[in-house]
Amino acid sequence: MAAKRAIFVAPFDELADPRLLARLAARAEEACWDGFYLWDHMAYRAPVRALLDPWVVLAAQATATERLRLGPLVTPLSRRRIHKLARETATLDLLSDGRLDLGVGLGSDAYGELSGFGEVVDARERATLLDAGLDQLVAYWAGTFEPRPVQRPHIPIWVAARWPNRRPVRRAARWDGVFPIDLEPDQLAELAGEIAQQRRDEGRAGDPYDIVVTNAAGTDPAPWEAAGATWCLTGFSPTPRLADVRSVIDAGPNG
């Protein structure tokens, strides 16, 4: 089965305009893309200077589109207040009529976006906060907070993981999708096989599950689809050029 196709951009510098990103999402929908996903960072390395909050942009994109799936890739839960995130995600799912995907992960302090703002830096502590935060988030969505999200049983959760690190893979297998970082199709096939086995062991083999990869424009999706990818995202550099993004969008997912 062909993977769904999406645009994946950093809302930085030339794209640091929420109205522009809303128009680009509408343009992507017209060109028959399936999704539009945004990086989620508080700071980034030079030469990046201007960064947008992805959540405000996602709300603008939700109102500018009707079919396109949307979401952050990825949000580090350790630097979020889970009750606030629960309200934001439920509201955005309602605003988009059930089109939100939530990408989560540990995050990184590579550019000082954790230590620079007094956030947790220790990786083990961040992992503990991520696991606890996901359980809390789903409890809020299940009815602790109202209104509930549109999607049932909950908003899809995609978890970032680096293969062959087993703990992040086990975490991802618990949820609704995996967003693997820096791997080739043969490695993706190994990862997909391990997750499938874990889900069989848990009696969840028949439940929907997404394997989400990102590659540069012009990458042939066929090897990734054969390895198990259900989403193939077209990504860009941390300093995306507007002309390049528009060109890719206008060419369409099969361009």
Could you name the key traits of this structure?
9-stranded parallel β-sheet; TIM Barrel; globular; 255 residues
Describe the structure.
The chain has 255 residues and is α/β, with parallel strands linked by helices. It has one domain (4-251): Alpha-Beta Barrel (TIM Barrel). Helices cover 40% and strands 16% of the residues. It is built from 8 helices and 9 strands. The protein has helices spanning 18-30, 54-64, 82-95, 123-144, 166-174, 185-201, 222-227, 242-251; strands spanning 4-9, 35-38, 69-72, 75-76, 102-105, 157-161, 177-180, 210-216, 231-235. A 9-stranded parallel beta sheet has the order 3-2-1-9-8-7-6-5-4, with helices on one face. Strand 8, helix 7 and strand 9 (231-235) form a beta-alpha-beta unit. Helix 1 (18-30) crosses helix 2 (54-64), helix 3 crosses helix 4 (123-144) and helix 5 (166-174) packs across helix 6. The longest helix is centred in the middle third of the chain and has 22 residues, at 123-144. It is globular. The two termini are 18 Å apart.
